[in-house]
Design brief:
Elements: E1 4-14, E2 17-28, E3 32-36, H1 43-51, E4 57-65, E5 68-69, H2 75-81, E6 83-86, E7 93-97, H3 98-110, H4 116-129, E8 140-141, H5 147-161, E9 165-169, H6 177-190, E10 196-200, E11 214-219, E12 222-227, H7 229-238, H8 241-247
Parallel strand pairs: 3-10, 3-11, 6-9, 9-10
Antiparallel strand pairs: 1-2, 1-4, 4-5, 7-8, 11-12
Helix pairs in contact: 5-6
Length: 274
């Protein structure tokens, strides 16, 4: 049975500035959804709010996972339920080895330690598929990693944790052509009845390797148009100016917000609106 992630009429703000303005989105496992749009329209904010970034205040709407609201759940609980967020800018954690981090994350998710033999076997297999260096298990988490290694390491974590839904926030930025293909093929190979994906991207090239079922255009904090691959081709050839003409929407590109999720906290709805 497919799992369903639903975002219902979601409004969210940061420092009194409203960023999300009525986002509606439904994703099922087995599906790939791509969100595209100019900078500053709320794409990364949406990913952070779904995962529980405490910087944002949800003022209205809801987020449901298999029919149950997760809006007031802390980040770690959302992760245990099957949500995963891959950052555009992964943090470096000196002193914690890559393998220890992932093994502890698996223990936190499953409630029990995975056998060392099984862990090593799956870890080595995932590293080989992602063309990661052999010394990866003993290196500190993202410390001294190149940009491409950091991105592939996010996908390595995803492959090991096997979430129901992965949100990939511009996982393609900074990747060369070969790394883009490796990341794309690995993500695409995971899509099945137990796994769905939300891609946030500016680059059409990634969508050559991870073919979306649905493409959404996000403008001014809301999804304004949904379609298929034809939208990718139109954006590639015309940018977003046609959106202004077709939908009568005015917008200006600006710097987007890129905060990191803080574990143990969450974005919460205002009490008087629950």
């Amino acid at each position: 049975m497919a799992s369903i992630l639903e975002v219902k009429n979601l409004y969210a703000r940061v420092e009194e500035k409203e960023i999300l303005k009525g986002v509606n989105l439904t994703i099922k496992t087995g599906e790939v959804h791509a969100i595209m749009g100019p900078n500053g329209t709320g794409k990364s904010t949406l990913s952070s709010v779904i995962m529980g970034q405490p910087k944002y205040e949800v003022t209205s709407g809801d987020i449901l996972l298999d029919g149950k609201s997760i809006l007031n759940m802390p980040v770690d609980e959302r992760a245990r339920l099957g949500l995963f967020l891959a950052y555009q800018y992964p943090a470096e954690v000196p002193g914690v080895t890559n393998s220890d981090f992932i093994r502890q994350a698996l223990k936190a998710k499953n409630g029990e330690a995975v056998s060392l033999f099984k862990f090593i076997r799956e870890y080595d297999k995932a590293c080989e598929e992602l063309k990661m260096p052999k010394d990866l298990p003993h290196r500190f988490l993202n410390d001294g990693f190149s940009g491409g290694e950091k991105k592939r390491n996010e996908i390595l974590q995803m492959k090991m944790l096997k979430p129901k839904f992965a949100i990939l926030d511009e996982i393609d930025s900074g990747l060369d052509v070969d790394a883009l293909r490796i990341v794309g093929e690995n993500v695409s190979s995971m899509v099945n009845e137990s796994f769905g994906c939300l891609l946030i991207t500016h680059y059409e090239r990634l969508l050559d390797y991870i073919v979306p079922n649905y493409v959404h255009i996000m403008i001014n904090g809301a999804i304004v148009k949904t379609g298929g691959k034809e939208l990718i081709e139109k954006i590639d050839s015309e940018g977003y100016d046609w959106v202004k003409k077709e939908l009568g929407i005015e917008f200006e590109e600006e710097a987007d917000h890129r905060p990191h999720v803080i574990l143990g906290s969450c974005a919460r709805a205002k009490k008087d609106e629950k």
